[in-house]
Fold this sequence. Notes:
Chain A is α+β, with helices and mostly antiparallel strands. Chain A is about 20% helix and about 35% strand. The longest helix of chain A is centred in the first third of the chain and has 8 residues, at about 35-40. In chain B, strand 2 (about 50) and strand 3 form a beta hairpin. Chain B is elongated. The model of chain B has no long low-confidence stretch (mean pLDDT about 90). At the A-B interface, strand 1, helix 3 and strand 3 of A face strand 1, strand 2, strand 3, strand 4 and strand 5 of B.
Amino acid sequence: MTLAGCVRFTYSVRHAEEPLEQTTLVALQTGTDDLGSCLTRLGAPHFVWEYHGDGMALGWVASEESGWGFSISYNPFRYANPSLSLDQADQNLPGVVLWFDRDLRLTEWRRGRMRDLTSNLRRRPAASDGG
Amino acid sequence: MSFVLLLGACAIGKQEVNEPLDARAIATLQPGVTTAREVVDKLGAPSEVIQLGRRTAYRYDASITKTAGMLLLLFNWVTQDGRSDRLWVFFDDKDLLTHYGASYGTHRAQYAFPWEDVHEASDNAARDKDRPGLGGK
């Protein structure tokens, strides 16, 4: 009984966001689709970055994770931390990034880990116009 | 009796960030017509404003994470389901709306068992039907 009080096995499942449909992604046509058609098909992205001046890149993430954990000295909050944090674009989440040129025409899209996809992208706050 | 004892081992939690977005207000946005000032009047202050060359973009978002678990002597399970509402609005250098994209997911977050599929299309459709601006009034 004492052992049961401090040794526990936990099976945890974590769903974050809805995965984009593969059929929707493969239907995207570089050089033809533009920002408007991509937003209509895929909805709002999680992230937007500046890309080559007037171009931009949009990123979507979704995650499905599950696994067993083992703990000695039990703390339920270690497993039940109820926060969903997608604020950091450099998280190692799986996702999709679309790149648009200055005319907002789709030039490329790729799936992968966000950390790899976004290594050359940046974002900056809008300049204040004082008004 | 054992069922009552098991109930004592159940746990649920819910975390909300921001108010869910108003789909009816968002549907009134008109690219080429609506200005940045009008967007802010309708939707309030954005969560983020970023510069994209000559353009700017505003982000609005909200999220809900639901957690369900069973805490037993030697074995626990915990399931989390997190979804968000997102809106990005894009403006030209004259602060005129050129594009926007919206996604609504907060109402789809579920308290789920570990083996449950939380992305069933029929389930999503049923939940969409009850959300104002999507299928509800």
